[in-house]
Amino acid sequence: MSFADKVVVVTGGASGIGEATAKLLAERGAKVVIGDVVEAAGERVVAEISAAGGTASFLRTDVAQAADTVALVDHAVATYGGLHLAANIAGIGHPPARMHELDEAWWDRIHDIDLKGMWLSMRAEIAYFLAHGGGAIVNMASGAGQRATLGQPAYAAAKAGVISLTGQAALEYARDNIRVNAVAPGLIETPAVAALDEQTRAMYAAQMPIGRMGQPREIATTVAWLLSDDASFVTGITHNTDGGFTQKS
Ligand SMILES: NC(=O)c1ccc[n+]([C@@H]2O[C@H](COP(=O)([O-])OP(=O)(O)OC[C@H]3O[C@@H](n4cnc5c(N)ncnc54)[C@H](O)[C@@H]3O)[C@@H](O)[C@H]2O)c1
User: Fold this and answer.
1) Percentage of the chain modeled with pLDDT above 90
2) Domain that residue 96 falls in
3) Residue 190 CB: number of other CB atoms within 10 A?
4) Which of 3, 155, 204, 242 has its CA 20 to 30 Å from the CA of residue 95?
5) Is 173 a catalytic residue?
């Protein structure tokens, strides 16, 4: 699966699933533009991609800021001459809380980044794609957006919104040569999860039917497939890459 001559923006590309996606797409020939709020980590990923022979650039981007999402698309076009693909992966969780205990500020922050940020990112990308012959988008959802999840009311609601927005965009722009899909991971061993204590990690891993947590690269490969021409007839889906978690009763 080659991405030679493709330019892709990866939001949240400075860590975890976004980092793995940026690296995989670069390995396969894409010119990668990373948008993230953490500058040092973003520049580290760019340096690692360059050292491995790939092509990448970083722009500090807060996906909750409309101007930043437009600037990220502009940066891709100015740096590499166009934009063909987008992986919208930036997202955060909140400290575990039951619904009646959740702080309102956390609700707002999660929805600003995980849901509004997804819309703002898509809005900027789709505007460019419409004027330049089309493109493909993958949004990072979560299994939490598909089934009730204890302790994550705002996050789960925002991710359900991501799944809805993905379907709406797919329908709206299907005749414009723009495909829009989502990926719903199970529990993935990213820096945030790796920071948990051993006992908690073991408990989470035991909940996965496949018997372990997923690795970021196992999500990146699904993102790459959905962005590629191999998925040319796929639009509007939310693909579960979750070690069987959705089948768990
Ligand atoms: N790790 C999991 O188990 C898991 C499961 C399901 C879904 N997800 C989703 O996958 C995505 C990546 O998660 P991860 O586990 O790799 O997390 P991570 O914390 O390792 O990476 C998230 C990245 O997003 C960036 N980011 C945060 N807020 C931002 C903003 N406002 N603008 C731009 N960038 C921002 C962070 O700086 C970080 O680099 C998230 O959307 C998350 O909800 C993760």
Assistant:
1) 90
2) 7-239
3) 20
4) 242
5) no
Q: What's the gap in Å between 203 CA and the centre of ligand 1? A: 21
Asked if residue 38 has its Cβ within 6 Å of ligand 1, the reply is yes
Would you say residue 206 has pLDDT above 90?
no
Q: Which residue has the tokens 């993958």?
A: 138
Contacts with 166 (C-beta within 8 Å, 6 or more apart), sequence order: 139, 141, 180, 181, 182, 236, 238
* 247 found inside a domain: no
Q: Is 92 in the pocket of ligand 1 (CB under 6 A)?
A: yes
**Under 8 Å between Cβ of 122 and 180:** yes
Q: Give the domain CATH number at 158.
A: 3.40.50.720
- State how far the Cα of 185 lies from the Cα of 199, in Å rounded to an integer: 22
Total tally of structural domains belonging to the chain: 1
Question: Is the minimum distance from the CB of 145 to ligand 1 under 6 angstroms?
Answer: no
pLDDT tens digits for 153-184? Answer: 999 999 999 999 999 999 999 999 999 999 99
> Strand, helix or coil at 240?
strand
